[in-house]
């Protein structure tokens, strides 16, 4: 991915997206259910920011070879 500024935006429909500042296309979309938003007491945007931050850090470490890539195929994530 070319180097550019990224922004986190909450769309009018409630989805939260990560996108390049100069592009409308989403690189990543997070969509919290109503139940999740209620559980998070309105702090879902802060949770989304933290999730995206960790993901971007991990992607950077993977591209630098610090983390080994997983094998392709289905896997349980938890």
Automatic annotation (TrEMBL):
<protein>
    <recommendedName>
        <fullName>ABC transporter ATP-binding protein</fullName>
    </recommendedName>
</protein>
